[in-house]
Model the fold of this input.
Amino acid sequence: MEEKRTDNVKPRRTFDSAYGFSFSIAVGLALFIGGLVISLTLGEGTSIGLIFGIPLLFAGLVIPVFMMRDLFKTSEIQEPCPNCGTTIRTSDATLQLRCPSCQKVIDVREEKLFLAE
Done:
């Protein structure tokens, strides 16, 4: 007899916006602390603290902003309702909305409108 077996494959974790935010904050914090330590320990009598510490402090503040720049960007979606065809305007940050015409619940995924199930 043939045995039926289904393999439950776990989906891989992707580098989505939550992970990107956490990673950028961690990188910025590590750079800032590294620059602070170098500035305070090596910066007393030499210029090494100024040459390496101050740029690391600055990088710790600026790099997370560059890494998260996609999180600050939103685009506007203007598409017809999948149920009645009424034009709906919303942003891509919206997850779910109700059509003003037919009152159906609509999901917003990947900058497209889909009728909720």
Q: What stands out?
A: The radius of gyration is 24 Å. Residues 17-42 form the longest helix (26 residues). Helices lie at 17-42, 48-67.
